[in-house]
C-alpha cells in the first residue's frame, strides 16, 4: 500500500484560532486515512491550545522529517522554548513564531520532505518585518518558488480568481491592464485543467466599474481594457465571456454556470465568495509548482481561546490540497503514458 500524502501545516498566529481549527480537524481519526499531517510548530504550544479546548488528541513528536509516522498526527518541533500565549492579542512574539513556522514548512516543501502545505491564518501586521516584507502568504510563496501566482478562492460549487491582489483600492484602475488580465485568465484556465481536471474550462470575466461601465457612462475601462483582453483570449482558443457586472452576476447565481470567475480586484471577488461560501471556502495559490492552500478566514482574535471557531474551512483546505495533489499526479501519469488516456476501443 502506498504512503499517504505528507501534508505540512503551519501553526499560524499562536494567539488566534489557527491551532484550534487544526486540532479540531484532526481530532477526527478518519482524516488520517486521507493524509499524514505534519505540524511545523511546538509540542508545548500545541499542548496549551489542546488543553484550552479540552480535546484529547495524540501526536508524534519529530526530530527529523525523515521519521514521519504515517497514520499519526506529527509535530515537527521548530522551537523548544515556552511561549507566552495571549488569546486575541496581536503581539510581536506571535509574528515571530508565525514566520518561523512558515519558513520551516516552506523549506520542507522545497526539499520535497512534504507533498503539500496548508497554512493557518497569520496577522499581516505583526509578521511584517525585514525578514518578511510581504503582504501575505501569496507574495511570499511567489518569491520562494519563482512563479506568477493567482489567488484562487475555491469551494464545491465555484472558483474565483482575482487580477489584482492586496493593493489599495485607489491603485486598482492603474494596475488593471490588458496584459495583466490575459495573464491571470490564462493562469486560471491552466489551473482549472491541471489542478481541477476540467478539460475545457468556461471562464467569466467581471467588469471593473458599476454595471460594467454602462457602455462608458460610468467608466471606460471595460471598453478600452477588459473587452480587448477578452477578445484576445478568445482568439487564442480560451472559452471566456464578459465583462459582467459583478453585483447582478452573483445575485442571479450566474457564477454557478462557469468553471471559474475572474474578478478585477480583491473585494469584488472575495466579498461575494465569502458571503456565499465562508464556511467551507479555501484560498488556493495557483500558478506554482507546489501546492499551498489555506482556510478563507483570518486569525479570529475575537473568538480565540473560546472554543467557538469552526474547522470546516480548514478541513476543506486539507481536502483540496490532497485532491489537487492527486489530480496533478494523475495528469502526469496520463501525459507520460498517452495510451492510458484512450479507451480500450480507441486503442484497438
Q: Helical amount among residues, as a percent range?
A: 25-40%
Strand order of the largest sheet: 3-4-2-1-5-12-11-6-7-10-8-9
Question: If helices are DSSP runs of H or I spanning 4 or more residues, what is the number of helices?
Answer: 11
Number of domains: 2
- CATH-assigned fold name of the largest domain: Isopropylmalate Dehydrogenase
DSSP, total strands: 12
What integer value in Å does the Rg equal? 21 Å
Gross morphology: globular
Helix-and-strand structural type: alpha/beta
Biggest β-sheet description: 12 strands, mixed
Q: Just name the CATH architecture of the largest domain.
A: 3-Layer(aba) Sandwich
CATH class of the largest domain: Alpha Beta
Report the portion of residues in β strands.
Answer: 15-25%
Overall mean confidence score, pLDDT: 93
* Uncertain segments: 343-348
At the fourth level of CATH, the homologous superfamily of the largest domain is Isopropylmalate Dehydrogenase
Give the topology string: H per helix, E per strand.
EHEHEEHEHEEHHEHEHEHEEHH
**First and last CA, distance:** 32 Å
Please supply descriptive tags for the structure shown above.
Isopropylmalate Dehydrogenase; single chain; alpha/beta; disordered C terminus; 11 helices; 348 residues; twelve-stranded mixed β-sheet
Amino acid at each position: 500500500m502506498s504512503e499517504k500524502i505528507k501534508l505540512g501545516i503551519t501553526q499560524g498566529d499562536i494567539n488566534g484560532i489557527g491551532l484550534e481549527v487544526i486540532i479540531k480537524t484532526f481530532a477526527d481519526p478518519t482524516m488520517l486515512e486521507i493524509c499524514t499531517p505534519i505540524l511545523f510548530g511546538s509540542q508545548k504550544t500545541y499542548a496549551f491550545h489542546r488543553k484550552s479546548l479540552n480535546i484529547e488528541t495524540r501526536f508524534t513528536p519529530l526530530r527529523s522529517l525523515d521519521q514521519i509516522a504515517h497514520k499519526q498526527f506529527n509535530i515537527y518541533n521548530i522551537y523548544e522554548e515556552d511561549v507566552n500565549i495571549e488569546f486575541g492579542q496581536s503581539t510581536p512574539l506571535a509574528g515571530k513564531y508565525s514566520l518561523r513556522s512558515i519558513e520551516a514548512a516552506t523549506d520542507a516543501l522545497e526539499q520535497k520532505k512534504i507533498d503539500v502545505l496548508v497554512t493557518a491564518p497569520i496577522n499581516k501586521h505583526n509578521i511584517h518585518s525585514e525578514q518578511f516584507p510581504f503582504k501575505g502568504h501569496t507574495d511570499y510563496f511567489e518569491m520562494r518558488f519563482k512563479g506568477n501566482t493567482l489567488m484562487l478562492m475555491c469551494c464545491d460549487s465555484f472558483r474565483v480568481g482575482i487580477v489584482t491582489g492586496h493593493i489599495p483600492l485607489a491603485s486598482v484602475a492603474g494596475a488593471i491592464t490588458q496584459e495583466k488580465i490575459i495573464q491571470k485568465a490564462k493562469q486560471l484556465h491552466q489551473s482549472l485543467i491541471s489542478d481541477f481536471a476540467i478539460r475545457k474550462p468556461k471562464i467569466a470575466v467581471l467588469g471593473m466599474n458599476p454595471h460594467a461601465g454602462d457602455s462608458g457612462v460610468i467608466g471606460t475601462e471595460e471598453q478600452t481594457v477588459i473587452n480587448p483582453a477578452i477578445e484576445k483570449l478568445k482568439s487564442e482558443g480560451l472559452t471566456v465571456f464578459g465583462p459582467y457586472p459583478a453585483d447582478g452576476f452573483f445575485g442571479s447565481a450566474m457564477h454557478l454556470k462557469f468553471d471559474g470567475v475572474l474578478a478585477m480586484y480583491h473585494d469584488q471577488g472575495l466579498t461575494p465568495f465569502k458571503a456565499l461560501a465562508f464556511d467551507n471556502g479555501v484560498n488556493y495559490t495557483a500558478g506554482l509548482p507546489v501546492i499551498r492552500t489555506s482556510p478563507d478566514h483570518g486569525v479570529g482574535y475575537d473568538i480565540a481561546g473560546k472554543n467557538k471557531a469552526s474547522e470546516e474551512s480548514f478541513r476543506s483546505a486539507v481536502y483540496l490540497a490532497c485532491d489537487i495533489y492527486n489530480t496533478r499526479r494523475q495528469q502526469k501519469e496520463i501525459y507520460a503514458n498517452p495510451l492510458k488516456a484512450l479507451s480500450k476501443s480507441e486503442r484497438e
